[in-house]
Amino acid sequence: MTVGAPTRPNAFRAPEWRNWSRAESVRPVRIETPSTPDAVQRAVQAAARQGLTIKAIGAGHSFTGIAVAEGVQLLLDRLSGVIAVDEASARVTLAAGTRLWQLPRLLAPYGLALQNMGDIDRQSIAGATSTGTHGTGGSFGGLATQLVGLTLVTGAGELLRISERENAELLPAARLGLGALGIIVDVTVQCVPAFTLHAVERPEPLPEVLDGYLERSAAADHFEFYWFPHTGVALTKTNTRLPADAPLRPLNPLGRWFDDEVTANGLYRGLCALAAATPAVVPRLNRAAVRLTGNREFTDASHRVFVTNRSVRFREQEYALPRAAVPEALRELGRLIERRGWRVSFPVEVRSAAADDNWLSTAYGRETGYIAVHRYYRETSPDRLEYFAEVEKIMVAAGGRPHWGKIHTRDAAYFAEAYPRFADFVAVRDRLDPERLFRNPYLDRVLG
Ligand SMILES: Cc1cc2nc3c(=O)[nH]c(=O)nc-3n(C[C@H](O)[C@H](O)[C@H](O)COP(=O)(O)OP(=O)(O)OC[C@H]3O[C@@H](n4cnc5c(N)ncnc54)[C@H](O)[C@@H]3O)c2cc1C
Fold this sequence. Notes:
24% strand; 13 helices; 5-stranded antiparallel beta sheet; 8-stranded antiparallel beta sheet; binds flavin-adenine dinucleotide; globular; alpha+beta; 20 strands
């Protein structure tokens, strides 16, 4: 039997859940908050008996419907914290609901840190790795590449340990499993000795940045840039790894607060609202934005450099391309915006990652570059959807693979072509969740 959509009357349902970008919502049949792996097992077994689907959610920061739980929604905030530390190998086992922002404090006593991080730290460790969350760095993989083991509750309600020593053949599937293989209760992360980052942020001419993108992605530890449409300027960010005891030159707290909260968030929110109401002002606003931000240099603990605070809500689409295809795809994107006369207030973000071997990783088997486009979440103009759709065509033509947690319209037939081990992943899903207890409409679309 395959578990279908829940049929309980609405009157008994839990409150409505909405994701961070407010594009996805669901009213689950019930919400559970287990605090032990045993309790997760009982929840899965009960859902199976009742013919309900069940899903864990993290911070709800995926833009897609990947975390939509129609049946039982598991909140794992009580399944959080350090379970074990192997100091000799720098491996730390964390309960699955641990949030990334908790890690600096949890890892500090052991002098450890995450090897790389994305733009924010609100996500849970299981949610972030399950969707292939990544930062930037031509020689560094996404977060899931740092998992050396994990324990999940399968569709049969059994605890299954997967690591280099136990059920190792499942590791490349389970590290980045889209929430489709089971409920992860813990993950073992390969950490690195704590380190600092020297950050240089500069506005530079876009054509030169595009010409130098491949070289700089390979040469710098962590290189990325933002291009504000309607300007010829890219704001580059180049971070260099230094030992933990390198002298710190952090942004002064007032400067950081002004840059992050006033300029980047408060002022930016106002500008986005203005731009949504009056699209004609967007080019002038974007030119002002590149003048106001992105010219600073500092050295600080790695997590304080990798992570920024994003309080302006938006919608996002991000595609992973063979890295060499990125400059031309971005030029094409610029021509598209010009041709269609769209007014796009949010910057385009360009990053990179090393090739890896997780079967559903957007960087599977190839050196990767990422192009992300965003729109303010309150923008209602019809061109918002058209923008994502037309950009997607450029990315697909360039051999793109969409981020699993960001808006896209691809389906299982596309992924069967895009991922050489797609059929192997589906076979693992058939083995671990034959009744499709962990399904939802998004997984039906992308996995079939
Ligand atoms: C402001 C913002 C900035 C972002 N920046 C980046 C970035 O820099 N880089 C990047 O790559 N992405 C980025 N993202 C996307 C984000 O990292 C991913 O969508 C991530 O999955 C969100 O984590 P979460 O904890 O919110 O998971 P959710 O969105 O809640 O869930 C994601 C998936 O994980 C599954 N899941 C969660 N917990 C478990 C568990 N215990 N067991 C099994 N499955 C589980 C869910 O069922 C779902 O399938 C950003 C998103 C936002 C909103």
